[in-house]
């Protein structure tokens, strides 16, 4: 299963922090994202100095994974 799926409300990252492929995909997306912003230390999900969607201030958790809300942070 791909770690990102399209939904009616936008893309949702459904990858698992326990899957190396999902972590690599989240890191690749974050490295290429101009809006990436590291969340507060106590809100970071993984221990890493590298940009990763799991640790981004713009991610919002859902039952199935998390969504990127970077457009809301820009305004």
Question: Can you tell me about this structure?
Answer:
There is one protein chain. The chain has 75 residues and is α+β, with helices and mostly antiparallel strands. It has one domain (4-74). It has helices at 20-31, 70-74, and strands at 4-7, 10-13, 59-61, 66-68. It has a 4-stranded antiparallel β-sheet, with no helix packed on it. Strand 3 (59-61) and strand 4 (66-68) form a beta hairpin. The longest helix is centred in the middle third of the chain and has 12 residues, at 20-31. The radius of gyration is 11 Å and the shape is globular. The model has no long low-confidence stretch (mean pLDDT 88).
Low-confidence regions: none
Distance between the termini: 33 Å
What does the overall shape look like? globular
Task: Report the radius of gyration as a whole number of Å.
Answer: 11 Å
Strand arrangement across the biggest beta sheet? 1-2-4-3
């Amino acid at each position: 299963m791909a770690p990102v799926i399209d939904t009616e409300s936008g893309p949702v990252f459904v990858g698992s922090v326990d899957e190396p492929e999902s972590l690599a995909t989240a890191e690749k997306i974050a490295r290429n994202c101009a809006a990436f912003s590291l969340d507060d230390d106590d809100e970071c999900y993984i221990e890493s100095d590298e940009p990763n969607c799991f640790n981004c201030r713009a991610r919002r958790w859902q039952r199935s994974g998390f969504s990127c809300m970077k457009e809301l942070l820009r305004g």
